[in-house]
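Lab meeting, item 3. Inverse folding demo.
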């Protein structure tokens, strides 16, 4: 990618930073290469490095299949349909109130490494999913909450990375944090890892709620991507407050056309998803072109 001047963003006052529109929050130090958008790279507890290429030019479409193929040989084996991101949007430009914490761009995830296909820390989604999620955001913003996004669209190459990790039974680096009650050899059997993911169809989101007044996430009684019964939406052994918080998120999502997953309180899929049979694999990055010449950013 074309490089520009590097700046250092230091988190000074987490609450003040969170209230600026559309943030990316990460819990690990990462290097971020991003085109200038309405989305600002910020972290609440570390220093990150970002690339700023100057003011955004008028929007002029999305990155083409040809540009994606030129970026990396890994995309040679995918069809044009699987690499077509024309039906997708950059979520934080569509819903500026969200908070992005794209876990698979960082090392803070069950793999313990940045996941294949996550080139930049952006949440991408189908236009239809973005429309419905905006309605959720508008409703909950009126009640004093913002949406914290952990993951949305997930490329097929990322799912393949998950599969390779799960088959490597000797890699237990993250067991204490993400699956302390399980042996790694049961992750496929219990459907925590699968060869295909609904996220790759572009209309699924993993999220929680951020309380504007307290400046903290709501206590859901468990963390994102924890493999165990604690993550089941109907898990009984949590406090009434934690159950109410899960219910608040769940009911808002259901009201605006999403369906839940039985094993993860944070996971929702648009009922009327536009690509129910297509598993995409274009990279997670800022797919919106800002008036730049075709291909100029990928030489």
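The presenter then showed the designed sequence:
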């Amino acid at each position: 990618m074309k490089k520009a001047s590097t700046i250092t963003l230091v988190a000074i006052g987490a609450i003040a930073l969170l209230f600026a529109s559309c943030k990316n929050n990460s819990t690990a130090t990462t290097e971020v290469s991003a085109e200038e958008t309405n989305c600002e790279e910020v972290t609440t507890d570390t220093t990150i490095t970002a690339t700023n290429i100057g003011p955004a030019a008028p929007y002029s479409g999305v990155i083409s299949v040809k540009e994606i193929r030129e970026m990396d040989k890994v995309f040679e084996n995918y069809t044009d349909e699987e690499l077509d991101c024309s039906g997708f949007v950059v979520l934080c430009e569509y819903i500026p109130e969200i908070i992005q914490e794209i876990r698979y761009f960082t090392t803070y995830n069950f793999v313990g490494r940045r996941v294949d296909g996550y080139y930049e820390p952006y949440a991408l989604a189908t236009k239809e999913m973005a429309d419905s999620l905006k309605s959720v955001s508008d409703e909950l913003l009126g009640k004093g909450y913002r949406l914290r996004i952990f993951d949305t669209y997930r490329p097929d190459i990322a799912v393949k990375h998950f599969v390779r990790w799960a088959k490597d039974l000797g890699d237990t680096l993250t067991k204490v944090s993400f699956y302390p009650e399980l042996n790694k050899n049961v992750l496929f059997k219990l459907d925590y890892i699968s060869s295909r993911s609904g996220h790759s169809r572009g209309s699924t989101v993993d999220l929680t709620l951020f309380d504007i007044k307290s400046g903290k996430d709501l206590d859901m009684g468990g963390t994102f991507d924890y493999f165990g019964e604690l993550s089941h939406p109907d898990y009984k052994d949590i406090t009434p407050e934690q159950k109410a918080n899960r219910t608040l998120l769940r009911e808002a999502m259901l009201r605006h056309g999403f369906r839940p997953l039985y094993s993860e309180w944070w996971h929702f899929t648009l009922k009327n998803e536009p690509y129910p049979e297509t598993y995409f694999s274009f990279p997670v990055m800022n797919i919106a072109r800002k008036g730049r010449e075709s291909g100029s950013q990928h030489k």
